[in-house]
Design goal:
- 35% of the residues lie in helices and 9% in strands.
- The chain has 225 residues and is of the alpha/beta class.
- β3 and β4 form a beta hairpin.
- The protein starts with 30 loop residues before the first helix and ends in a 12-residue tail after the last strand.
């Protein structure tokens, strides 16, 4: 046994040699994708600078990023697997396993935590019959905790499938959201008016959106974990 072998890991270690999800003949770029990758590479002093965009392209192509897809992206940019893997695992927006049709990332970072992030997470767990990190049996929803999504002023909130934010959540808003998604519709982007805009600048300053909402006093959480 090597002196570097971990005999009592703090967390479960990933499988070091998992069975591939995609065959070698599937791991190819189309001519159009190759052209796009070359354009991205030209934007950086070194080709490796394009890794985040290439990983995103691969996720759109394959749906998620199992190890062989991450390696494929790394090979495309002459990166080692560990370099590409480090990027893919740093950001929760990259899916390392197959997800449901809609991924609900509930923010439980500090502000959302004290304003009801875990209340919303637990409500969704009860409503969907799954725990955070799981996917419903019908493959419709994956529920996840997320680190700060940068929208503390409208906590508690969540993000749908790396896209639309849903703000100032309540159980009623969650019910409406789930019904909307089950109907196959994404919620509409909503701009939240900041307090200073309301009080000093005459309301929402966005002129390029159809839907806005006003700032609400944030709730106090019942559960902090």
């Amino acid at each position: 046994m090597s002196e570097f072998d971990i005999t009592r890991p703090v967390v479960e270690l990933p499988d070091q040699d998992p069975d591939p999800e995609f065959a070698d003949d599937e791991l190819v770029w189309t001519d159009e994708e190759k052209k796009q990758i070359e354009a991205w590479k030209a934007q950086y002093p070194e080709d490796q600078g394009a890794i985040m965009k290439v990983l995103w392209l691969a996720q759109e192509k394959f749906g998620y990023l199992p190890p062989e897809v991450i390696k494929f992206c790394g090979d495309t940019l002459d990166m080692t697997f560990s370099q590409a893997y480090g990027v893919a695992t740093f950001y929760h927006q990259y899916y390392k396993e197959e997800k449901g049709e809609f991924v609900l990332d509930v923010c439980t970072c500090f502000t959302c935590q004290v304003c009801g992030g875990y209340d919303i997470l637990h409500y969704l767990e009860e409503k969907l019959g799954i725990h955070a990190g799981e996917t419903t049996d019908d493959g419709t929803f994956t529920l996840q905790e997320a680190e700060c999504l940068g929208c503390c002023g409208s906590a508690p909130m969540l993000e749908v499938s790396n896209g639309v934010y849903v703000h100032q959540l309540t159980p009623e808003k969650v019910d409406d959201l789930i019904e909307t998604l089950r109907d196959g519709e994404m919620p509409e982007f909503t701009s939240v008016t900041l307090p200073q805009d309301e009080d000093e600048m005459g309301g929402n300053r966005r002129t390029d959106v159809e839907k806005t909402t006003t700032y609400e006093t944030q709730p106090r959480a019942e559960h902090l974990e």
